[in-house]
């Protein structure tokens, strides 16, 4: 059957959202009709969007690839979608794909922006792809070496994934640090040591800060050994952050480095592009089924306006959204237009 409209989630004002019906165009040559199976709330960034806290100076940099509307609102925002291709050129129909599309039941997508799920990657787990890509870029920026002591502060999704990637480097001693003692269970499932801030190990060769808190950033400076590198992975939106850069910061010759997924890590740019990086993130997800522990909640798409408010205000990891027709296989009723 053909579809002329699709429901999509819009932030209509800071702290408010709704599902809207909007036109669904017929796919042209080189385009796919995709039915959503799952999407996910990227808690850090989407919470800032939900609360209207994207700085005006960053409106263009923060645009998602398929965003509609403008900051602060109304805006259709998101970038963690798993779907099945219902119509399009061969060999696409029936394929399960990841795309950087917002929360919407059906949508039309250029072929170049469809990323097939690799064998062994369950669509339920694939919603972590965007976070895994961010963590991969952070790992490149941190450049962990074999045998090093590495501290990762902030056991959110990106912090956990970055710690897992650093722990895969031979001989590294990775410690994941968070104020929430319940994150110890997550660290154990990932095979990584855990500590609360007051018990964190000092003398780290590299520190990755991902807690988006002023206290976490200060802790990163405290835990770093002389000449160590600190990678700042948090994004604070409009908040100003104070750092203790007096006392021994300069005498210890610490390096403070930012990491952001919008650009590839400098050392990779001559050989990698965004598509290669995302495909590698999908392959890493397929090879690490234990990472599914980072998905700690699920709701129906119809409940998304209410769910977004609770997720933005809470301490969730990855909250998955399930669509009413969630089977990630091509329906026999689906036809090309």
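-> sequence recovered:
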């Amino acid at each position: 059957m053909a579809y002329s409209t699709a429901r999509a989630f819009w932030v209509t004002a800071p702290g408010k959202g709704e599902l809207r019906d909007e036109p669904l165009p017929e796919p042209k040559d080189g385009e796919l009709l995709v039915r959503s199976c799952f999407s996910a709330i990227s808690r850090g960034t989407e919470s800032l969007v939900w609360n209207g806290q994207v700085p005006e100076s960053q409106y263009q940099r923060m645009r998602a690839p398929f965003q509609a509307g403008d900051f602060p609102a109304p805006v259709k925002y998101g970038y963690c979608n798993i779907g099945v291709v219902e119509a399009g050129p061969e060999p696409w129909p029936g394929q399960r794909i990841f795309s950087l599309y917002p929360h919407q039941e059906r949508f039309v997508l250029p072929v170049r922006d469809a990323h097939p799920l690799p064998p062994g990657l369950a669509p339920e787990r694939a919603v972590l792809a965007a976070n895994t890509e961010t963590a991969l870029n952070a790992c490149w920026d941190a450049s962990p070496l074999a045998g090093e002591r590495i501290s990762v502060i902030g056991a959110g999704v990106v912090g956990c994934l970055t710690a897992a990637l650093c722990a895969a480097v031979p001989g590294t001693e990775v410690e994941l640090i968070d104020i929430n003692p319940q994150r110890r269970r997550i660290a154990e499932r990932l095979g990584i040591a855990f500590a609360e801030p007051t018990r964190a190990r000092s003398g780290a060769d590299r520190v990755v800060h991902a807690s988006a808190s002023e206290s976490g950033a200060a802790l990163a400076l405290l835990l770093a050994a002389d000449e160590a590198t600190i990678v700042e992975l948090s994004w604070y939106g409009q908040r100003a952050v104070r750092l203790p850069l007096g006392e021994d910061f300069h005498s210890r010759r610490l390096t403070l480095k930012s990491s952001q997924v919008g650009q590839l890590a400098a050392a990779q740019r001559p050989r990698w592009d965004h598509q290669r990086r995302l495909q590698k993130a999908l392959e890493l997800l397929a090879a690490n089924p234990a990472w599914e522990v980072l998905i700690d909640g699920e709701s129906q798409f119809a409940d998304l306006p209410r769910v977004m408010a609770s997720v933005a205000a809470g301490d969730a990891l990855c909250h998955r959204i399930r669509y009413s027709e969630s089977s990630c296989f091509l329906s026999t009723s689906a036809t090309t237009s």
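The first helix runs from residue 43 to 50.
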